[in-house]
């Protein structure tokens, strides 16, 4: 069983939707240490996010926890065949041990940062944070009980509420190893890459720019609206458009902020407060505008847009790219940590294309072609020094 399969089963159990076959699989998996560890992490994320208070009364919280892991209502506990109360008791004992140890060891919920690192989350305007279950279809409500969006699989679609009179923001946070899609209320579609966050209005206001805030990487298909320009605030750079498709990469740890134009036209500005007055840098299709964070300057070059947008379909394309940059992309894509002690390798440039390969297969390619020595331990990869260094 894969970690993804196990996570799906755990989530179904916590929601009371587990079948007899799935319960058997869950019990069998708990003989493995990695499965028990994953179960504990799932309890931490799913339960603590349901708490509505900041300071936790651990005893009250534990009683609340117990109420959330009851067997499915559709299953009769009086049955004596294999799918019985004893089987649920076996799972409950594991949940009891992990949950009790966690709740009474910690007096406060997981931090927002810890949650973001483990699951896709949606922060509503109220400050409430929901874990996004990619296998679940549901509606999203704000405080007043109004439906603002629907979630289906790995996509959220917002409704266009024309009566909105003030900006109300939601924020999506995507951890390493995952991607997500959101359709904004104006029809703009945004694909979010791993390790990214997007803050956006639930509804845009008439007479104002359509402005969103990005950290990480996203591909935008902007709905055309000549009277309401669309602005992406990517930290030190702002991208202003009317209707077009482009990719923005603005990770904190990267040395530059890159905008690649696929179709239409965009204008790049240095400062979010000046995008109406300062002379912009204009791009045409198949151009990349790079903002150097150290030099605080723009550079424009012609590029193959496929190289920069392949991530949407799960592919990784590296063209004349240093291993230092490749390493960061692999960490985000596979949700791993790579520690490289081979300094010579760090600055070498490579060309490669990966599609469905696992991280182990990717490393095998580098080892076979460039003779790197490494060790994999859990989700950490250690690359050893070159003997010549």
Largest sheet: 18 strands, mixed
Q: Count up the helices.
A: 10
Helicity level:
25-40%
Distance between the termini: 41 Å
- What is the CA-based Rg, rounded? 24 Å
Task: Note the quaternary state here.
Answer: single chain
The share of residues in extended strands comes to: 25-35%
Based on secondary structure, the structural category is alpha+beta
Strand segment tally? 23
Q: Residue ranges: pLDDT <50 for 5 or more in a row?
A: 50-56, 68-86, 99-110
Q: Concise description?
A:
It contains ten helices and 23 strands. The protein has helices at residues 3-14, 20-29, 33-48, 58-67, 85-105, 112-116, 305-309, 323-334, 343-347, 359-370, and strands at 121-123, 129-131, 137-141, 147-152, 155-158, 169-174, 180-183, 189-192, 196-201, 210-221, 230-234, 237-241, 245-250, 256-263, 266-269, 281-283, 287-292, 297-302, 316-322, 337-340, 349-354, 374-377, 380-383. It has an 18-stranded mixed β-sheet that branches.
């Amino acid at each position: 069983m894969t970690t993804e399969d196990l996570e799906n089963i755990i989530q179904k159990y916590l929601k009371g939707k587990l079948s007899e076959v799935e319960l058997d699989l869950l019990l069998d998996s708990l003989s493995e240490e990695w499965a028990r560890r994953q179960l504990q992490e799932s309890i931490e994320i799913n339960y603590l996010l349901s708490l509505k208070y900041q300071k936790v009364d651990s005893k009250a919280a534990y009683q609340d926890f117990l109420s959330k892991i009851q067997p499915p209502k559709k299953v009769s506990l009086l049955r004596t065949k294999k799918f019985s109360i004893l089987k649920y008791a076996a799972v409950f004992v594991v949940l009891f041990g992990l949950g009790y140890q966690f709740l009474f060891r910690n007096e406060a919920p997981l931090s927002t940062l810890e949650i973001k690192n483990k699951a896709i989350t949606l922060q509503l305007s109220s400050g409430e944070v929901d874990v996004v279950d990619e296998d679940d279809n549901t509606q999203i409500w704000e405080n007043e009980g109004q439906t603002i969006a629907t979630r289906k699989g790995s996509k959220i679609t917002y409704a266009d509420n024309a009566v909105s009179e003030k900006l109300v923001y939601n924020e999506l946070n995507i951890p390493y190893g995952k991607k997500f899609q959101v359709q904004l209320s104006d029809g703009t579609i945004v694909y979010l890459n791993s390790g990214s966050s997007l803050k956006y209005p639930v509804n845009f206001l008439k007479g104002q720019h359509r402005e969103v805030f990005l950290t990480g990487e996203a591909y935008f298909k902007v709905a055309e609206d000549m009277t309401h320009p669309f602005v992406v605030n990517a930290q030190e750079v702002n991208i202003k458009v009317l209707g077009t498709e482009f990719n923005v990469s603005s990770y904190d740890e990267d040395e530059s902020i890159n905008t690649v134009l696929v179709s239409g036209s965009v204008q790049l500005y240095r400062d979010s407060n000046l995008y109406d007055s300062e002379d912009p840098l204009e791009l045409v299709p198949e151009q990349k505008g790079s903002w150097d964070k150290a030099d605080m300057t723009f550079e424009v070059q012609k590029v193959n847009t496929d190289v920069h947008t392949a991530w949407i379909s799960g592919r990784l394309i590296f063209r004349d790219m240093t291993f230092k940059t490749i390493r960061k992309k692999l960490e985000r894509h596979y949700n791993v940590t790579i520690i490289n002690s081979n300094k010579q390798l760090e600055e070498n440039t490579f060309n490669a294309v990966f599609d469905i390969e696992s991280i182990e297969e990717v490393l095998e390619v580098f080892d076979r072609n460039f003779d790197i020595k490494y060790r994999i331990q859990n989700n950490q990869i250690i690359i050893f020094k070159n003997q010549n260094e």
